[in-house]
């Protein structure tokens, strides 16, 4: 029995079959509920909704659609870089690595990495960490397609999952965090997150992070204002979610999607704009929200980086830089670091 099971009694192990198991914390942690968070963030002076709330079933489906609209370059660009990594990453790895993914990921990207893990290893271990149980669904197809793969899902926050992994065993981990999801953290939360990754890694472990780069403002703004209006639907969907789950009466016709690039802070800022003076009741948050015409509700930051900033940030946390890969247009980056 491994350390995690002997010492870490906080997780329950579910064995689906010999190639698929997952761990889930026994007790849900003391985190604020959706209703409480909305009450405090929409009830304050500068109104906001945390971007983690975008991803209900509908929101996750809309995000998938965003990834293939022509203006949203990050997904296809990162995939093109991952294709190069199929030959360029293996020299950094040996037989002993397992693949750990933060987020259960788009299977296209995960597969590009699993392709070379499974072709060079007798048995490949894949550990997705995701708060949503969706990872148990996407696992079946992977197991069908890769016969020498075993999957251990950790259904928890990234931080919780990384802590779990720290005491799990001595096998080396390649931890991947793709899609520039890191860009959605505030700088302070992002730094704390990287410290957590670093502190839970063992010497010799590797971390691969995908980050979007600073570029021409028009390219950035079009990516978040696509002509098909999918990003607008994605943004507005969070209000439908609040209506459904918190018993609220947002009228979506009274809001519009608004996304701009803030050059100074190097980030796309996404808002929902109130199109009228209005008042909304969010019953389960015990909130009556008053909005003026043109008032903004902040929903997301998506930070963009310069290469030197990425290297400085990772260096500050203590990581050792191994390599950065870019696409031809230098729109997106993948950086590999280690803990020594
Ligand atoms: C998930 N995340 C990296 C996306 C981004 O680009 O910041 C979310 C997104 N929001 C609007 N379009 C895509």
Automatic annotation (TrEMBL):
Histidine-specific methyltransferase SAM-dependent domain ranges (all copies): 34-338
Record keyword Methyltransferase present: yes
Gene Ontology molecular function, alphabetical: methyltransferase activity
InterPro entries for this protein: EgtD, EgtD_Methyltrsf_superfamily, MeTrfase_dom, MeTrfase_EgtD-like, SAM-dependent_MTases_sf
Keyword entries, A-Z: Methyltransferase, Transferase
Signal peptide: none
Sequence intervals crossing the membrane: none
Pfam family, one: Methyltransf_33
Single Gene Ontology BP annotation: methylation
Domain of life: Archaea
Protein known as: Histidine-specific methyltransferase SAM-dependent domain-containing protein
Organism: Nitrosopumilus piranensis
